[in-house]
Design goal:
mainly alpha; Arc Repressor Mutant, subunit A; 3 domains; 3-stranded antiparallel β-sheet; elongated
Amino acid sequence: MSRVVAKSPDDPVVAARRALLEGVGAEVAASFPGITRLGGQIVAALYLADVPGSGGRSMDELSAELGRSKSNIFANLRALDAAGIVERRRASGSRHDRFALRGPYPDVIVGAYINRLRRTVLDKRALVERALHLLGESRSEEAEVMRGKMHDLQRKYGLFHDVFQRVGAALDGPIDLEPMLREIPTDMLDAIGEMATKARTGGRFS
């Protein structure tokens, strides 16, 4: 039986793989509280392992591949599962779970991040409502200033919520964003870009 020869760290494939693991690890850790760099590296490893018939990776395989303890792998898999990025699978007759991305990468990260933003907006709307309730009928100068700021936040979070309800809900679950984005008319993208430029520079909208 032939031996598996370990590749040199200077091998181009090894170097490219290491760069991807480190880059995705940093990206995911920065975007999702509770998920570490190792969690992002798991995402990259699952993406690279996503070939027909692979069925994902087991926890033991990920532990050996990434050189980390199974307890660390398991903790990050749970966090990735909770974020809607990873799913567990179990083949008929198997005693062990296998793990795979819930959708194509990087689309699955974008969708999970949008869902996180939606939840944040809902939480902040509730927070503003609670603050207004606590202000009650107080009419002191300080209370009026506070009430004005809460009404500003209420308006903005309400607008964000409306946008997410119209668009964000459609992105729930695994979705391949590429064909959808290719169908967006270029004049619509140009209009959005123009509006963003006006908003950044303080221009007026007609």
